[in-house]
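tool=predict chain=A
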Amino acid sequence: MALFRRRRSADSTTAVTEFWDAWPSAREALADAVESDQPVPPEVSERVTALVRAIHPDLEWEVGPAPKPGGGGVGDLDLSPDVDPGKLLEQLAALDDPSRLTGGPAYALTLRPGASEEARIQSERWARSAPGDDRWAFRPVRPADHDQLSATVRWDDHELDLSHVSVSMRVDHASGRIEVGVYHPDNMFLSGETRERLAEHVTMLALGEDDTVRWIGRTAPLDEPPLDPLPPTSMPAVVRQMADMLGGSGGWVTLHGRVPLQGAVEILLRHPLTRRDFPAFSLFVQVVVPYTHMNEDRLPEGASASALDDLEARVSGVLGDNGALFMRQTAGGRRDYRYYLDPDSGVLPEFEAALMDWPEGEIKLRSQLDPAWAQFESARRPFRRQLGE
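tool=predict ok
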């Protein structure tokens, strides 16, 4: 069961390697700039910019204090009846995280890919290859920062208290995007360019860079307060509601049908799905697993159904955050899996090993580098109408 293996061109990784080789010579100057709240020295800034742009020309970068881990306790847990059990476990794990007590990193270096999907892929590879550094957090994209939504910013000689901002949000169901209007009482005193920057800044602080690119179609400043004003901190909740509405339960959609001579077909696929969800995953792997115990519709039952569940759990445990299942199709005595993996993670041999010794027939497997996810798009294309596209 040999995989067809290809290595990516060295050109795509050389720039990342060169950045981390140069990192020790820049880190202290960047830390000093953060500590003194002063601009990075020009010669250091130019050097870092050149290194970052070599990774991808659309990338920007910034440094600042690392967000301090929350000091919350059990009283801060979300114990609402509809809370996602996985989210609750993450909160409990965070309470036991030693970095919460030790303070964690002091500084953060963040790459800014903006709307460029290719730049986002490269920033993810950059962050995943970062060396261990207790003083620094390396972020591939700007995250949301709700603390800053109550801070004061200064633009064009105007001090703007962001706690006075209110927003309007309109969901365009046809496009699956949100239009955001941002009102500040001082908008009337600001230039058009500054008002636009303020609207984008507030949206970015509320949602983070990835969700802004995923979901926001347009941001615009408002001259008058919204009729139904919302605090910017409520924007993630609106986005989650839309995602739940479009994606079904847990971001998965199940489709059913019948195929001549094969019987019933059951398809499970991720939807909605954007390149931002798994930016590092560019190795496509198709795995076809036969099964022998099936019902009259030729779908797995009994021992085969249990064995397939065990196989999927074992593979998922091996992959961790280095790969993910995108689609699963079951029909006619075989289950067809479509995975994408991070080709730089080194997880491929373990992935292969997890598929060995299947007792119900020969597993067939093929792989290829597919950074555009063309294989997944081709497989899901027949179902676009059922997905509401």
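The CA atoms of residues 47 and 116 lie 22 Å apart. The first helix runs from residue 11 to 36.
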